[in-house]
Amino acid sequence: MPPHKITLEEYHQMAPIFPDARLELLEGELFDMAPIGTAHFWTVAELTRLLTLHLAKRAFIVCQGPLSLPDSEPEPDIMVVQLTDYRQRLPQPADVFWLIEVADSSLNYDRTRKLPLYARNGVPEVWLIDLNARIAEVYRQPAGDGYQNVTTADTLTPLAFPELTIALTDILP
Questions:
Q1: Are 150 and 109 in contact (CB under 8 A)?
Q2: Distance CA 171, CA 76 (A)
Q3: CA dist., res. 41 & res. 46, Å (int)
Q4: Which of 51, 93, 149, 159, by CA, is between 20 and 30 Å from 136?
Q5: How many helices and strands, by DSSP H and E, does the chain display?
Q6: What per-residue confidence (pLDDT) applies to 1?
Q7: Is the pLDDT of residue 2 over 80?
Q8: So what's the pLDDT on residue 12?
Q9: Is the domain covering 35-171 a CATH 3.90.1570.10 domain?
Q10: Could you tell me if 172 and 43 are in contact, meaning their C-beta atoms sit under 8 angstroms apart?
């Protein structure tokens, strides 16, 4: 039997009922988010620190906040978005420079559920940091359900800010 789909409006109405739940809405379906372990916490915190240090006057660094999509509201670990006024709306794909997902237990979910969703909605670049394999996968040039350019990297340089370089060894625990 297919799952019952809910709308963004229904999702927002449900939020007060489950204030401590770690849920995200993907294509009308609710998904439990994996617990945040120590390695995941450290990597997200260190990336946030480094990105804020280098991009503070050029981008917002949003940690585990919602991205507004037509029937979804994923919460990437980090969003690097344009400096604009978000008091009346959430960031949308057109605002995104790039997203970062940090995965240990969520790797399959991030690859099969979130990456296709990001690609379909035109997110230009996604970094997937695989904590278990200690590698970074870089996804660029969205096309349909995927990305045309997929590489692994030891040094990360975003398309939007080519002068910024982050060594993978600097952000892994």
A1: no
A2: 17
A3: 9
A4: 93
A5: 5, 10
A6: 58
A7: no
A8: 84
A9: yes
A10: yes
CB 99 within 8 A of CB 93: no
CA 77, distance to chain mean position in Å, is 5
Q: Report whether 39 contacts 130 (CB < 8 A).
A: no
Q: List Cα–Cα distances, 30 to 1, 24, 72, in angstroms.
A: 16, 6, 9
Q: Which helix (H) or strand (E) holds 166?
A: strand 166-167
DSSP reduced 3-state for 64: coil
Name the least confident of 2-11, 28-37, 125-134. Answer: 2-11
Within 8 A by CB and 6+ apart from 158, the residues are 80, 97, 98, 125, 164
Q: Are strands 125-130 and 96-103 parallel, antiparallel or unpaired?
A: parallel
The pTM of the whole model exceeds 0.85: yes
